[in-house]
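User: Just a sanity check before I run the rest of the batch. Below are the structure tokens for the first item. I only need the designed sequence back.
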């Protein structure tokens, strides 16, 4: 069903979405991203069926999305409570902003802590906003005193605790990528 164009030397196909990939995302790429966010365990055949392409171009598109860094990995979502992580804390870390080297040292130390599941460099009051998971309040208290306060360049911490999740583990919004 493919043919070579005499003028361009590119392979063309009558199936939509099988042309060579440009630099941006098209509707098939966006559909792939949406489907894989819903269920990353989809077989290539099922993914192809859901987005309306055959399996070969779907596989090539997934590989291109991975190579270009749009897809950065695949992982299972775990229920934190079932594995004994009952406390989710939001921790604002105030750092001494005396120099960039000290801030980079603090960043590196934070990256190495498995209890920190997310960290953002923030504007306004504070330097970093961390999301921290621990088994219970006592464990968080011990961890903050034994670990967090001992990190380089930490001036103070301010902690808020989640009282209940309204929404977590959400897929990224893709509506802005869809073209008419």
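Assistant: Here's the designed sequence for the first item:
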């Amino acid at each position: 069903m493919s043919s070579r164009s005499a003028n361009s030397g590119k392979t063309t196909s009558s199936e939509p979405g099988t042309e060579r990939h440009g630099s941006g995302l098209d509707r098939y790429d966006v559909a792939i991203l949406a489907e894989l966010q819903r269920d990353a365990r989809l077989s290539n055949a099922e993914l192809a069926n859901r987005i309306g392409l055959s399996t070969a171009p779907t596989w090539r598109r997934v590989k291109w999305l991975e190579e270009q860094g749009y897809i950065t990995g695949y992982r299972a979502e775990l229920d934190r409570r079932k594995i004994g992580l009952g406390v989710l804390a939001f921790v604002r870390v105030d750092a001494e902003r005396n120099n960039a080297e000290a801030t980079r040292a603090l960043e590196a130390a934070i990256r190495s802590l498995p209890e920190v599941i997310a960290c953002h460099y923030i504007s306004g009051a504070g330097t970093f906003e961390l999301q921290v998971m621990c088994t219970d309040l006592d464990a968080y208290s011990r961890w903050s005193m034994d670990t967090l306060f001992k990190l380089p360049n930490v001036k103070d911490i301010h902690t808020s605790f989640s009282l209940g999740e309204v929404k977590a583990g959400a897929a990224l919004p893709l509506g802005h990528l869809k073209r008419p």
